[in-house]
Specification:
- The protein is mainly alpha-helical and 338 residues long.
- It is 53% helix and 7% strand.
- The chain has helices at 23-36, 48-51, 58-74, 92-101, 106-110, 113-121, 127-141, 155-172, 217-225, 243-256, 260-266, 272-299, 301-330; strands spanning 9-14, 41-46, 82-86, 147-149, 180-182.
- The radius of gyration is 21 Å and the shape is globular.
- Bound molecules: tryptophanyl-5'AMP.
């Protein structure tokens, strides 16, 4: 097979830091993951090593990693079409991360806005939180990744990853593929439902701001119906002045495939009540089945763990050649294989 025939290599990861993924994860990243497994050579990873950079409970972490993997399968990842694995099962990730950390300047690492935001929220900031972006770079570069489907909040980490790959290649000769971010503009940042100036996240304004994929359908409906809008009562896309309604239009449009213009004219002259009521049904109908499917997958833990072990074995086989090459380039002894 010539290089031109090779399918693009895709890598992305998600942290197992809550009991359920949310609508921002889904529209910003996970939906693209499912679509891209059809046309690319994709690896998807539950990044539990990243999850210990903030306070965590060991039992809860292990369970969340498992529930995370189950949700990804429930969303449509197919272990026959992609490689799905848990990061801690592939030791090449922290091994490469150490090397990349030694190539990163303190100045460039200190510019990471996610570190600044997250450390401001912690009582105690760890070195792991600071070196988090180098581990993320290792995740990506280990697999000679071409494209990384993520939301907007990961763009700066991707830039650092690219800079590190270019610098390493320049110093030691071609070692890593320089990856491109794959960010869908329309859904790059889904906003908090009660504070639409902020991105939706599990540390959002309050329980109503973040819509979880494993919420009960009625809880989803309630969250949409109580989403913050404005006093104008016209369904119009204007993110500057009508952030709440625009966010709801984005969600509606991306879940149904109807254009924003079509939705604007469908709701012309109607109030927010009708609009939110219909969107609440769309959300509950589309996302409701995910919780059931996740529960079914979790019912057979042995099978789930088998899938994950298989994924980790496949990932290790792909990661090893890059790690070995990198070890050689920096002057290490080769890793001893078991
Ligand atoms: P994480 O776990 O915070 O989020 C997973 C994915 O969801 C996207 N996302 C959003 N997209 C749109 N709107 C939102 N409100 C929203 N909230 C989250 C994120 O951009 C991400 O794509 N550092 C990464 C995990 C990671 C990774 C990697 C990603 C580790 N290694 C290698 C890509 C490649 C993170 O914390 O994502």
């Amino acid at each position: 097979m010539s290089a031109a025939d090779r399918k693009p290599r895709v890598f992305s990861g998600i942290q197992p830091t809550s009991d359920s993924f949310h609508l921002g994860n889904y529209l910003g990243a996970l939906r693209q993951w499912v679509a891209m497994q059809e046309t690319t050579d994709a690896l998807y990873c539950v990044v539990d090593l990243h999850a210990i950079t903030v306070e965590h409970e060991p039992k809860v972490l292990r369970e969340r990693s498992r529930v995370s993997a189950a949700q990804l399968l429930a969303l449509g990842l197919d272990p026959e079409r992609c490689t799905l694995f848990i990061q801690s099962q592939v030791p090449e990730h922290p091994m490469l991360s150490w090397i990349l950390g030694s190539e990163t300047g303190m100045g460039e690492a200190s510019r990471m806005t996610q570190f600044k935001d997250k450390s401001a929220k912690q009582e105690r900031t760890t070195v792991g939180l600071f070196t988090y972006p180098m581990l993320m770079a290792a995740d990506i570069l280990l697999y000679q990744t071409d494209q990384v489907p993520v939301g907007e909040d990961q763009r700066q980490h991707l830039e650092l990853t690219r800079d590190l790959a270019i610098r390493f290649n320049g110093t030691y000769g071609k070692t890593f593929t320089v990856p491109e971010p794959y960010i869908v503009k329309e859904t790059a940042t889904i906003k908090d439902l009660t504070d639409p100036d902020k991105k939706m996240s599990k540390s959002s304004s309050g329980p109503r701001g973040c819509l979880y994929l494993l919420d009960e359908p009625n809880a989803m409906r309630k969250k949409i119906k109580s989403a913050v809008t404005d006093s104008e009562a016209s369904v119009r896309y204007d993110p500057e002045n009508k952030a709440g309604v625009s966010n709801l239009l984005t969600i509606y449009s991306s879940l149904t495939g109807d254009s924003i213009e079509k939705l604007e004219s469908a709701y012309a002259g109607k109030g927010y009540g009708d609009f939110k009521g219909d969107l609440a049904d769309v959300v509950a109908d589309t996302l409701g089945p995910i919780a059931t499917a996740t529960r079914e997958i979790l019912d057979d833990r042995a099978e789930l763990d088998r899938i994950l072990t298989m994924g980790a074995e496949k990932a290790r086989a792909m990661a090893a050649p890059t790690l070995n090459k990198t070890y050689k380039k920096v002057g290490f002894y080769p890793p001893v294989t078991r």
